[in-house]
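Hi L.,

As promised, Acyl-CoA thioesterase 2:
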Amino acid sequence: MNESAMKSDPMESLLRILDLSDSGGAQTDESIFVGHGDANAPMKRLFGGQVLAQSVVAAARTVDSDHLVHSMHGYFLRPGDAASPLTFGVQRLRDGRSFSARRTHAYQAGVPILSMIASFQRPDSGIEHQESMPTGIPGPETLPTSAELLGGINHPVAKSWAHDRPFDIRHVGSDVYFDVKGEKVAHQALWLKTLGAMPSDQNLHRAALAYASDYTLLEPSLRRHGIHWSMPGISVASLDHAMWWHRPVQVDDWLLYVSESPSASEARGLNLGRFYNRDGVLVASVAQEGMIRVPDGLLDE
């Protein structure tokens, strides 16, 4: 059997990753859940978006079914191992009439690799406004897929990005996989959706969006300085991640992901993002600061 036949389907992998077990009833002052690593990961380091998504799912397992995650704030504490399982400890911080708060720690080898606090809310009504969706953006059907851009490149990471990700990602304009074309700007846009249908659970859709939000959020900082993902000697890592879900979201339908970097300094870049559905509804916002280290003399300013 060849290597490609042995690999699991990307959507099956995503749903498996988001399906946590309850650890057979193990309990401390936390609720304990166990999650899988990623068998399709091209590198040893665990993808940060996976840990975020699993932490949201773990927290959601401890709140009433009518409560939806509306915000989370997490810090990446240590690199994770993609091949190893994870343990999630969820502490119940507060349960009110409308809001519930949870703290989730993700552990590997007995130490925390992520610390996150998430807030859940029973659906409610109130004031409404939103930032408008950018105009003049070409539709996703007109743009090349990652598989089309990367599938012919004989490199394990390129092949994994092309075929193993559970999301179809289509950059508007140039990508930054192997070079930075055009003007060096601190903003970008792309379309994304899952490769297949998702279960109807809204908290699962929101967790999957957290997963996908980490793929490209640091790219505006990279793009502004002509840095691409395959540049020799660079070191890039997510430091923290905050997300707000404003309205119901369907990750198995196209979402426009617009992002920008307002600042970079001291080997850190701040990046902000917004997600719109095809009707122009703002469904979520995200913020992340990442470490970006570049060897001296490598940049062409």
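The chain has a mean pLDDT of 92.

Thanks again for sending the construct details.

K.
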